[in-house]
Structure prediction request, 401 residues.
Amino acid sequence: MTDPFRRAARIATVELSEILQISEAAAAMKKAGRDVISLGTGEPDFPTPAPVIEAAHKAAQAGETTYTATVGTLPLRQAIAADCERVNGYRPETSEIIVCTGAKQVIFNAMFATLEPGDEVIVGAPYWTSYPDIIGVCGGKPVVIATTAANGFAITADQLRAAITPRTRWLLLNSPGNPSGAVYSAAQLQALAEVLRDAPHVGIIADEIYQHICYVPYTSFRMVAPDLADRTLIVNGVSKSYAMTGWRIGWGIAPKRLIEAMIAVQGQITSGASSVSQAAALAALTGDQQLLAERNDDFRSRRDMVQAALNATGLIRCGSADGAFYLFPDCTATFGKKTADGTRIEKDADFCAALLQTEGVALVPGRAFGVPGHFRLSYAYSRASLTEACKRIARFCQSLS
Ligand SMILES: Cc1ncc(COP(=O)(O)O)c(C=O)c1O
Prediction:
């Protein structure tokens, strides 16, 4: 008999992401009494700022508990426009802004609103694990460009030119990048913009969600290529910068015709984002911004500490990562070696599995991001956890023969 709950073809290959699988495995080990340090998930360990929580509380008490406009509240969209001008130097119209339930939904809405079956979306690897899945669920085909550590994990102009076909609908850029931590310089973005000027059928999604976690001068794609604004979607939100992952507020800035198509999609999925969360995001954008710099400094010093400790193992090569709160080191020097119990390490997943089993440190294998031979480590954890994790990773490396 045919199962009425059989999966539709469009989601046949979509599984729980490896990141979530590892977090769940680590949580299960912890529950069973093991001392586990999980550096797997990508969320800041800082609390949501107290005034933001206060504002949400007040909004709920004042009756801001009903549906909002699908596109988002006007005060929040005005605050996003002002924030964009302050931070990036351009001010979008409020009609060019949509508020969504997290930055993830911004990308989903745009893909769902525009992709025809088989349309191509160019993505650089390593990529955020959700990109190919979102593209696939929306009927598109991810076209993956392999970037290298030597190139700072950035797509080059030549690679982009070679990847564009008549079926290309979007280039999906992410800077600072998850998982690489790579930040595109103005010159690198300019070189890509040059290629895109010759490809007027290609839209650009610039996922700038980690913009405020960045240790080098930051350039928004929109600023290097204002002439391409008519086909650019900027993605941002409060999740990472203000430590508000659970509040689920992100936004897109794009020409009105795309915003309208995204509203059509969102109107049939979630409608407007949570009213209380929108009030919270408004407070975040209009409140004290000093904390962004303070938290950024803190992340930077944790990065320095972990990077140095990993390189000191002699078996892990950890290059620079100028933003986000991830390192994406190379662990290929451990391949061919054996753990104390005789397990042979042949690939990144073996390295991560053996490390979790023997030392209780959870990391995510690079294959989850399209680049095997590496692992992703999130340093958005306490210094004590990071210090202990580094000690265990070093001990694990020493134990290999
Ligand atoms: C590159 C990137 N874009 C978007 C998101 C999603 O952000 P949000 O939690 O606001 O949906 C994430 C979250 O991990 C991310 O790493």
